[in-house]
Structures are given as structure tokens and as C-alpha cells.
């Protein structure tokens, strides 16, 4: 069993047992394992541990397999409950980080950009090879002076969802970015996404108490 699915297994089985008898639980769990393994074999692991973003793809395989196994009868609320159960410990650690303070430290933001640039160079070399259709990244293309920003011009999750018919479930995966940002007191400003037909996914992380965050909340609420 793929290790990411193994982490999700207790919460997934909990959901199944609340809805089905034990024989049906075993049948549906088997379908989860088979679909996850099939997609991993056909679509690849994007470099596995060598690619720090590949876990997003593994999560997508697992969640879409589970979504299929429960006959797509799985709400956004159900998804959030599962994620918060599985990620309780990592989220607790992230809560000790405060983006409002970090973004004021220029040296720290510069170091973060340096690390992502190194990852981008490696990703560019490995795309189309061992890392398959991994993400194509542009770093701070709009020259943001605050926070941390980058753009994804491609996304294997989007391509997978489009290929296998999970565009209805993809927003749940995308919403994780906002959920995770909130854990370290950040606000994710994102007005364009691949799933929305915009040709790119924007990421601009700022402190959740910053002026940029407040302006964005007003903008989003007016839409």
C-alpha cells in the first residue's frame, strides 16, 4: 500500500464503517487500494521522495480513489473532516509559525525564494523525465514586494482530474492550499486557477492580518 494512502486509511475506514456493513467496507476499501495502485502505476509518482511536491499527487490519487469507492457521495465537509483528522499533528506544528512576523524579515523571504529557485531548476531539468508532468513554476512573476509569491503554469492534479473525470472533486484539493495557509497565519491571494480556465494557478502568501489580506477579503466578498 502506498504510504500516503496508509496514513489516510484509518479515517477513510471510519467513514466507510459509518455508512456500510463490514463486508461492504472490505469491498469498497479494496476498490480504493486497486484504483490508487492503478493510477500510481499508469501516471507515475513524479519522482517520489526526490520531488518535494509529489505528495500532493499521491494525495490526489488516494482521495479520488476513495471518492469513486463511495460512489462519489462525499461532500466538501466530509473531506475537511478527514483532512483535519489526518493532519492534526502537522497543523498543530504549523500553528506556531506566524506569517505576519515572517514576511517582515526580508532575509528570511530572500532565503525562501532562494530555496524555491533551487527546486525550480531541478524541476525544470527533471520534467518530462523521471518527474513526468510535474509542476512548471514561475517565481514571483509580478514582482510582489511583500509576502511570498509564485505561479504554477501546469499542474498534474488538474491534468489527472481532467483526464479521469474528477473536475468536480478538484476544488477540494485546491482548497487545501487555503486551509494550510491558515494554519501558519497566512492568507493565500489567488484570483486565477487552472481549474477555472485561467491557464495558471496563482500563489501569493501574505500575513492574515496584513493590509493585502484585508484588501483581498473585500475583493473576494464583492465578487
Describe this structure in words.
- The protein is of the alpha+beta class and 223 residues long.
- It folds into 2 domains: 1-86; 98-223, no CATH class.
- Helix content is 59%, strand content 10%.
- It is built from 10 helices and 4 strands; from the N terminus they run αααααααββααββα.
- A hairpin with an 8-residue loop joins strand 1 (136-139) and strand 2.
- Helix 1 runs parallel beside helix 3.
- The chain is globular, with a radius of gyration of 18 Å.
- The model has no long low-confidence stretch (mean pLDDT 94).
Task: Give the secondary structure arrangement, pairings included.
Elements (H helix, E strand, L loop, with lengths): L2 H15 L4 H22 L10 H16 L6 H11 L1 H7 L4 H4 L3 H21 L9 E4 L8 E7 L1 H9 L5 H14 L2 E4 L11 E7 L3 H12 L1
Antiparallel strand pairs: 1-2, 2-4, 3-4
Helix pairs in contact: 1-2, 1-3, 2-3
Number of strands: 4
Order of helices and strands: HHHHHHHEEHHEEH
Q: Please, what is the average pLDDT?
A: 94
Largest sheet: 4 strands, antiparallel
What's the domain count? 2
Q: Order of strands across the widest beta sheet? A: 1-2-4-3
Helix content: 55-70%
**Radius of gyration of CA atoms, rounded to a whole number:** 18 Å
Compute the number of helices: 10
List key phrases describing it:
alpha+beta, globular, 223 residues, single chain
Summarize the model shown.
This protein is of the alpha+beta class and 223 residues long. The protein contains ten helices and four strands. The longest helix is centred in the first third of the chain and has 22 residues.
Amino acid at each position: 500500500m502506498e504510504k500516503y494512502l496508509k496514513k489516510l486509511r484509518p479515517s477513510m475506514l471510519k467513514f466507510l464503517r459509518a455508512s456500510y456493513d463490514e463486508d461492504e467496507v472490505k469491498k469498497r476499501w479494496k476498490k480504493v487500494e486497486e484504483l490508487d495502485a492503478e493510477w500510481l502505476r499508469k501516471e507515475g509518482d513524479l519522482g517520489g521522495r526526490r520531488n518535494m511536491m509529489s505528495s500532493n499527487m499521491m494525495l490526489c490519487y488516494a482521495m479520488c480513489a476513495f471518492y469513486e469507492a463511495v460512489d462519489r457521495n462525499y461532500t466538501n465537509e466530509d473531506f475537511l473532516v478527514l483532512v483535519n483528522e489526518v493532519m492534526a499533528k502537522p497543523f498543530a506544528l504549523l500553528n506556531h509559525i506566524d506569517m505576519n512576523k515572517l514576511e517582515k524579515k526580508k532575509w528570511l523571504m530572500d532565503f525562501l525564494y532562494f530555496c524555491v529557485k533551487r527546486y525550480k531548476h531541478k524541476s525544470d531539468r527533471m520534467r518530462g523525465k523521471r518527474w513526468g508532468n510535474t509542476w512548471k513554476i514561475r517565481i514571483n512573476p509580478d514582482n510582489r514586494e511583500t509576502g511570498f509569491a509564485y505561479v504554477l503554469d501546469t499542474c498534474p492534479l488538474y491534468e489527472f482530474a481532467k483526464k479521469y473525470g474528477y473536475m468536480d472533486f478538484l476544488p477540494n484539493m485546491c482548497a487545501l492550499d487555503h486551509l494550510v495557509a491558515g494554519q501558519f497565519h497566512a492568507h493565500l491571494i489567488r484570483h486565477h486557477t487552472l481549474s477555472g480556465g485561467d491557464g495558471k494557478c496563482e500563489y501569493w502568501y501574505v500575513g492574515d492580518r496584513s493590509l493585502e489580506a484585508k484588501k483581498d477579503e473585500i475583493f473576494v466578498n464583492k465578487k
